[in-house]
Amino acid sequence: MPPHADPESRTAVETHAAVRAALFLVLVGMCAALHIWKVPPALPQLQAEFHLSLVESGFLLSAVQLGGLILGLPIALVAERIGLRRCVLIGLAILAATSMLGALLDASLLVLLCRAAEGLGVLMVAMPIPSLIRRLVPPDRLSRIMGFWGSYMPLGTVVILLTGSWVLSLSSWQLLWSLLAALTLCCLLLTARLVPPDPAANPDQPRHSPMQLVRTTLGSLNVWLVALIFGLYAGQWIAVIGFLPTIYAAQGVGGTTAGLLTAIVAGVNAIGNLSAGRLLHRGVPGWQLLVAGLATMILCAWAAFGAGLPASGQFVAVLMFSMVGGLVPATLFVLGLTLAPSPQTTAPTIGWMQQGSSLGQFVGPPVVAWVVNRAGGDWQWTWTATGAFAATGIVLAVLIGLRTRPRTNGAGAKRP
Prior knowledge:
This protein is mostly helical. The protein folds into two domains: about 1-195, Growth Hormone, Chain: A; about 210-415, MFS general substrate transporter like domains (Growth Hormone, Chain: A), CATH 1.20.1250. The protein has helices at about 5-35, 40-50, 55-60, 65-80, 85-105, 110-125, 130-135, 140-150, 150-170, 175-195, 210-220, 220-250, 255-265, 270-280, 285-305, 310-325, 325-340, 345-375, 380-405. The longest helix has 30 residues, at about 5-35. The chain is globular.
């Protein structure tokens, strides 16, 4: 832009560049999601190569959640100190390095340790991005961009389930790990080029100590409510998506078909996320979207597992479970940004939400499996466990509505 250009044109160009950088950060989040979901399609090869038991396989699947489960809030505090963009770059470097290292190792324990390190990289990438997006885009575009961000996980899941299975049909899991390492390195270089550097610290602005930020963040009931709802949502969604191939296998559906159906169910979750962004932008209160999404998940889980529907009806019900349930994560991200106690606690709030989500993903599948085992292996009682999670989330969402309605507008909090 030449120096004599009028201010309005310069502002429009800068806004366009900022929105482009924010949308690219959604792709970066998808890249991190590929690392989370790369193990399920590769698990048969890993089990055969390392002679993994079912329990060891479970640890390999869940190890990536340990970072978010333990370090969500601490990493958020680190990100506030070193800069959000720099945190994303470090996370991408960790993901690229550990994925490549994992491809070179020949011991199951070392691969498991690399998997845990990848969890740290995923956290350092995904946790700061919502705060980065808020910093980049104008307030009137935040809800819609966050709708895209809420889709990063389901879209990444679809991509890796489909392309990962194709790569594995041609070669080994080591090639898949190596390709993801190269892709992540490309994302790192593009992030350094497209995303503006972190702003310099303002010497006139008081710096809060980490303990002050923790006390302020965890002293807010709204932060706890958003994090708990995220955990309750993530626990039931990951349980249903994770067990779908097993359920299909029990019904005699082949492995390739089961994988494709599972990918479709995971992918439609993005529709709900994008819809939430548009509805929030139009002024629909966030707590109402949470109630609508969670209530639909209860009804659809019952229809899929407890109503005795034929296979086609079950698939439609699970599809709606995931699609309408997608209203929840995008809404929660917007609420997390707007209900944070202060601008300085935005990243810690998202970090605490990440810990809630990771806890739900860690606890949800075992709870569902326990209920099914207690029912003698009958999957029709799955909906009672997921329904209990969703019902609790509805109560908490209504509480958010009661706490914010008198002084709010739009997404459930004061407009940013």
